[in-house]
């Protein structure tokens, strides 16, 4: 009887059939990333760019409130901060119809933020520029942001800045292509 009860018991370790290589009980982890820079931006980098965009959009909203104008008007002033523009070029840059740009320019001219003058190079065109007072107000509002951005980039090596500029250019091109597909 004692013999029969041994037969029904589980075999001892010594008598178990051999298994394939034993697997570890530790969780499987992804391999560590290579130390070399990836060929394409990581999703973290794209997320960071989107986060920066959101902060700058919030800054523009606050700047518009500080200047007591709307965001469309601010966008126009920011384009004009780079120098005088033709009304048609402003319309294109801001994505506005000719009627919308005329209304926007009327509003800004009534508030003495811009001035319009006949173009010296094309008698059919109108040149638009900031008034000296609005140029000073705009510069004052953006002064802190510009100083902060300059300080943030001042300690970077030229190669890093060149790489960042190239990446931002590629991201801009990708976003423009996506926008074109939307129509």
Keywords:
Arc Repressor Mutant, subunit A; single chain; globular; 3-stranded antiparallel β-sheet; disordered N terminus; 183 residues; mainly alpha
What is the count of β-strands? Answer: 3
Top CATH class of the domain at 66-150: Mainly Alpha
Helix and strand sequence: HHHEHHEEHH
The main sheet comes to: 3 strands, antiparallel
Shape: globular
Given the structure, what is the number of helices? 7
Briefly note the CATH topology name of the domain at 66-150: Arc Repressor Mutant, subunit A
This entry's quaternary arrangement is single chain
CA(first)-CA(last) distance: 87 Å
CATH architecture of the domain at 66-150: Orthogonal Bundle
Mean pLDDT score = 83
Return residue spans where pLDDT drops below 50 for at least 5 consecutive residues. Answer: 1-24
Widest β-sheet, arrangement of strands: 1-3-2
Structure classification: mainly alpha
SSE map:
Layout: H1 2-8, H2 43-67, H3 71-80, E1 85-86, H4 87-94, H5 98-110, E2 114-118, E3 126-130, H6 132-154, H7 158-182
Antiparallel strand pairs: 1-3, 2-3
Helix pairs in contact: 4-5
Short recap of the structure:
The chain is built from seven helices and three strands; from the N terminus they run αααβααββαα. With 183 residues, the protein is mainly alpha-helical.
Verbal overview:
With 183 residues, the chain is mostly helical. The chain has a domain at 66-150: Arc Repressor Mutant, subunit A (Orthogonal Bundle). 61% of the residues lie in helices and 7% in strands. It has seven helices and three strands, in the order αααβααββαα. It has a three-stranded antiparallel sheet with strand order 1-3-2. The longest helix is centred in the first third of the chain and has 25 residues, at 43-67. It is globular, with a radius of gyration of 32 Å. Residues 1-24 have low confidence and may be disordered.
């Amino acid at each position: 009887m004692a013999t029969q009860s041994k037969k029904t018991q589980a075999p001892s370790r010594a008598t178990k059939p051999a298994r394939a290589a034993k697997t570890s009980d530790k969780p499987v982890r992804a391999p560590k990333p290579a130390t070399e820079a990836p060929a394409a931006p990581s999703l973290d980098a794209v997320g960071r760019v989107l986060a920066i965009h959101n902060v700058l959009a919030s800054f523009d909203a606050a700047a518009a409130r500080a200047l007591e104008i709307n965001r469309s008007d601010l966008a126009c002033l920011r384009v004009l901060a780079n120098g005088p523009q033709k009304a048609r070029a402003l319309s294109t840059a801001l994505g506005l119809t000719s009627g919308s740009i005329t209304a926007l320019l009327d509003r800004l001219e009534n508030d003495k933020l811009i001035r319009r003058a006949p173009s010296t190079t094309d008698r059919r065109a109108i040149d638009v520029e900031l008034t000296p007072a609005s140029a000073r107000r705009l510069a004052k509002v953006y002064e802190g942001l510009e100083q902060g951005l300059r300080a943030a980039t001042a300690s970077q090596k030229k190669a890093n800045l060149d790489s960042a500029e190239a990446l931002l250019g590629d991201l801009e091109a990708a976003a423009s292509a996506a926008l074109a597909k939307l129509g």
